Amino acid sequence: MPGIRVMIYEPVNGLRTGGEELLEDLPRADGAWLWADLEGIPKEREYELLTTTFGIRSLAIQDAHRERHPPKQELFDNYLFLLVRELVHKGDSRDDPEFSQISLFMGENFLVSRRKDPSASLNNVWETTTIEQMEKGPAHSVYRICRHIVDHFTPLVIDLEERLGDIEDSMFQHPSDELLADLAVYNRILKRFRRTLTYQHAVMKHVALSNDGVMRLFDDHEFNDVYENMERLASLCQLNQELAVDLLNTYISISSHRLNQIMRVLTIVTVIFVPLGLLAGIYGMNFENMPELHWRYGYFAVIGIMLGVVVTLITILRKKKWL
């Protein structure tokens, strides 16, 4: 539900959760830290809370409030700002993917997560958090959130890869306009996935490789895992998008070839019957002074000429390998 929820870990007192009332004092004891999760609260209230309680700079808050800001990371004096996108899957896999933006502000003794809409990744991490996990500090919780975000992308990317394989198998056997429509949809979805995952894999790479400031709190192996999985998904999206484009071009080429074959047959039929139509038209005219009309064998002669024209044209077309 929209609002503020807070989780505090202290080595002596353990783990406790509550609402906004727990924000009065940040924990000061060694190893103690606070996680505040903000969902859908008014921007003015959120701005005041982030600046006064956690010392977050206004520029970072402005980026967090921008609904279509690309994923990014920015290191400040005593905290790290991460902006990531979570996949929100609704409806059929043919639908355009929807993304929810999550902002994370992490210091040595606090973690603030904010978003406009509900987040499956944040809720999952929040609900499954234990004292043992809180002992590892806020950086570990950031890792768990990012790992859940990666895991939400994985099944859909794999599913799209399998669907493209099925389309590739069906294209040469049963080409149809439905396959073309599917390819166009999957190409668009993969393009959006690729753009988002490329941004996020660059963000994870920077976090995994940097040890400046609060970056030293991250476990390199944990974020290397996130980075490698994000990079793999980004590469898969790129490869599958290229495959979708190749299949689109292949389908268009096959359709053009089939159309050319049909047009060739129609052209050959036209070439053969045009002179026959000419002869039929000439002898269908109602002129009195046409000697052939009164000739006993005129009909058979014209039929013979027509057959001769057909045989001659077919022979010429075969020699030129047009038929």
Structure description:
It is a single chain. The chain is of the alpha+beta class. The chain has two domains: 3-254, CorA soluble domain-like (Beta Polymerase, domain 2); 259-319, Up-down Bundle (Methane Monooxygenase Hydroxylase, Chain G, domain 1). The protein is 57% helix and 15% strand. The chain is built from eight helices and seven strands; from the N terminus they run E-E-E-H-H-E-E-E-E-H-H-H-H-H-H. Strands 2-1-3-7-6-5-4 form a seven-stranded mixed beta sheet, sandwiched between helices. Strand 6 (98-107) and strand 7 form a beta hairpin. The radius of gyration is 35 Å and the shape is rod-shaped. It starts with a strand and ends with a helix. The mean pLDDT is 85.
List the helices and strands and how they pair.
Elements lengths: L2 E8 L3 E5 L14 E7 L3 H12 L3 H8 L6 E4 L3 E10 L9 E10 L2 E6 L4 H9 L2 H4 L3 H34 L5 H33 L10 H63 L15 H22 L4
Parallel strand pairs: 3-7
Antiparallel strand pairs: 1-2, 1-3, 4-5, 5-6, 6-7
Q: Largest sheet, described in full?
A: 7 strands, mixed
**Alpha-beta content class:** alpha+beta
Radius of gyration: 35 Å
How far is the N terminus from the C terminus?
A: 72 Å
Instruction: Indicate the CATH architecture of the largest domain.
Output: 2-Layer Sandwich
Notable characteristics:
323 residues, alpha+beta, Beta Polymerase, domain 2, Methane Monooxygenase Hydroxylase, Chain G, domain 1, 2 domains, seven-stranded mixed β-sheet, 8 helices, 57% helix, 15% strand
